[in-house]
Amino acid sequence: MTCDAFHPVPGYLNAATLGLPPKASSSAMHDALDAWQRGGVRAADYDDVVRQARDLFGQLVHVDSARVAVGSHASVTAGVVAASLPDGARVVCVDGDFTSIIFPFLAQADRGIRVRHVPLDGLAEAIAEGDDLVAFSLAQSADGRVVDAVAVREAAARVGAMTLCDTTQATGWLDTNAEDYDVTVCAAYKWLCAPRGVAFSTYSDTALARLRPVNAGWYAGASVWDSCYGPQMTLAPDARRFDVSPAWLSWVGAVPALRLLATTSQEERMHGSRLADQLRERLDLPTQHRPVLAMTDSDGSRARALERAGCVVASRAGGVRVAFHLWNTVQDVDLAAAALKVR
């Protein structure tokens, strides 16, 4: 079973905030720290680790690795897109979406960039002629709701708007196809169970042609180790031109986690969704086929009850958020149900 790949942590229901590392990731990072302490590694030794991570992520989101760039955080990629928009561009965002894909566009207000916030359920209908970009999370951070991605893509295509899709809260449990969007970004420390500081982005041909690699450094060079000094610049011809120099040890831990997810079937990745639906049934709530369950909790009483029972959960947007993933078991459902005093 996939849950055997993790050290047991009863009651940990917080994958949407911080994923747990597989045993293999912890082991790899301990070994890497020991090798670093011994002076047994060279900087170039980490290149293969990054290559493996890039390839594995490409497999997970169904794109060639040449379309995958490595980075650190979602806002960095959103910032690249924002900086590449023409003066006066119009951007459509989801009201209440995670700020990493909102703030980079709001920060461009002095160039006349206009950001319109619309309800998630009405996103596709709100896209109109003159819009240049639609930026949204595939699954919402606050409550796990999933956007009607097909409707959004079709609406954006009709008006010629580019799409930026943040898959951070989706990739790892929901089958996502990066080919469906101009740009995707995914921070890997949640559902992909990698260390924080690992993120990926993907680019369509349109995005590769239009976006400016404003964060370009030596790691974005066509030949990385020949790009350490100026004045000449020759960037990679593919998505690597958007690479951000990796924090090496984080990527050592990422590879085993990504390999685990890449070799886990989609049916197995839905394990957390099935557990969440079991809890919904015990709360007399309709099934939603997603691993995140959000409940109103304005006074924090539900979160406190869950925490007293030994559950780790998150308080978000006036509610409590419970998130099941690969390491969770039916016993975690029982624990949460007992804390909430349901049958």
Structural class: alpha/beta
Strand order in the largest sheet: 1-7-6-5-4-2-3
* Tally of helical runs: 12
Shape: globular
Strand content: 5-15%
Multimeric state: single chain
The CATH topology assignment of the largest domain is Aspartate Aminotransferase, domain 2
User: For this structure, what is the CATH class of the largest domain?
Assistant: Alpha Beta
Mean of residue pLDDT values? 97
The radius of gyration over CA amounts to 21 Å
The unreliable regions are none
- End-to-end Cα distance, whole Å, is 28 Å
Identify the CATH homologous superfamily of the largest domain.
Answer: Type I PLP-dependent aspartate aminotransferase-like (Major domain)
Major sheet summary line:
7 strands, mixed
CATH architecture heading of the largest domain:
3-Layer(aba) Sandwich
Number of domains: 2
Work out the number of β strands. Answer: 10
Describe the structure.
With 343 residues, this protein is α/β, with parallel strands linked by helices. It has two domains: 2-21 and 270-339, Aspartate Aminotransferase, domain 1 (Alpha-Beta Complex); 43-262, Aspartate Aminotransferase, domain 2 (3-Layer(aba) Sandwich). Helix content is 34%, strand content 14%. It is built from twelve helices and ten strands. It has helices spanning 23-37, 47-61, 74-84, 103-106, 123-126, 149-159, 205-210, 248-262, 266-269, 271-282, 301-308, 330-339; strands at residues 68-71, 90-94, 114-118, 133-137, 162-166, 183-187, 199-203, 292-296, 314-316, 319-323. The strands form two sheets. A seven-stranded mixed sheet has the order 1-7-6-5-4-2-3, with helices on both faces. A three-stranded antiparallel sheet has the order 8-10-9, with helices on one face. Helix 2 runs parallel beside helix 8. The protein is globular, with a radius of gyration of 21 Å. The model has no long low-confidence stretch (mean pLDDT 97).
